[in-house]
Amino acid sequence: MDNSILRYFGGMVYKALAAYDESMGKLCEIRLRAGKAVGITTEKGYCFLNANGLALAMKSPSPQQVLTVTADDIRRTFEALCRFSVHSCQGQISRGFITVAGGHRAGICGTAVYSPDGRVENLKYISGINFRIAREIKGAADRLSDCVKRPTGVLICGEPCSGKTTVLRDLCRQAGNRFPVSLIDERGEIAAACGGAPNNDVGANTDVLNGFSKGDGIITAVRSMSPRLIVCDEIGSEEDIRALRLASLSGVKAAAAVHCGSPDELMRREHLRRLIAEGVFEYIVFVHQREIVKIYSGRELIEACGKEQRNG
Predict the structure, then answer these.
(1) How far out from the chain centre does Cα 21 lie?
(2) pLDDT tens across 254-291, in order?
(3) Please, which residues have CB within 8 angstroms of residue 68's CB and are 6 or more apart in sequence?
(4) 215 backbone dihedrals φ, ψ, rounded to 5°
(5) Residue 8's beta-bridge partner residues?
(6) Which tens digit of pLDDT belongs to each residue from 189-231?
(7) Which 8-state DSSP code applies to residue 197?
(8) Domains and their CATH numbers in the chain
(9) For strand 154-158 and strand 283-288, is the pairing parallel, antiparallel, or unpaired?
(10) Cα 147 from Cα 162, distance rounded (Å)
(11) Which of 38, 165, 221, 279 has a CA-to-CA distance to 106 between 20 and 30 Å?
(12) DSSP character at residue 37
């Protein structure tokens, strides 16, 4: 495994991950839970890891078979993720994640500390870490070549770890090599900017608004950057929807991703269904195992789901 990932782990966890052979399945996630077995997610599914780096099927293996995570393992990884400066990462920690160089993101579990006005301002007693591995795969969006020849509204759908962000990143790169693009990189996963400079190739004509909320970033881009396409990951809130609608009314197209496993599931989400019906998203793309498996036009998807409902 790449040392840029291994450096966030220590002790027996480091040794097991270093020994892991990715021919058994490319790693997508590494899960540490205090007192529990090290878990890994690959494109083949979820399993446990033993001390020798072998993947064990998720069928309740005995504690003697698996590598158990200690409180010290959690502490080491958490401190490494924070670059040994927890205070400097406080904003991200309060939102439950830390993004590191390369666009990798670690979800953090612990005990919430609330501010007087009801916001989560910190996490203490860190008990679990889910390290999600980002992969830059040039060509992942090649099937969307018609969508990057001109600014086009595209919604990329898939379950967690399906490769939505990978496809979206490559779409951003291809589009950004043709016309002005504004990338709203709220969690730093797409461009993996460090010190303001993107580590990933997101296109020669792409401006990166790093750390902005999607709502604020979209409005800022429309008002000041004159993009022809806005790219953002994991939309869903009412604020996101309002900002995307504003961009559309301003003549700016959008490419975005959303957690969604099927067309029926997507169309049950009223605010997204309205955006599709309004033409904000002209194409809806479903992704599985980092590959595009189905492309619908907005009209096709609405008609297909309507037919299923009538037949049902």
Answers:
(1) 24
(2) 999 999 989 999 999 999 999 999 999 999 999 998 89
(3) 35, 36, 37, 38
(4) -60, -50
(5) none
(6) 899 887 788 889 999 999 999 989 999 999 999 999 999 999 9
(7) B
(8) 3-132 (3.30.450), 142-311 (3.40.50.300)
(9) parallel
(10) 21
(11) 221
(12) B
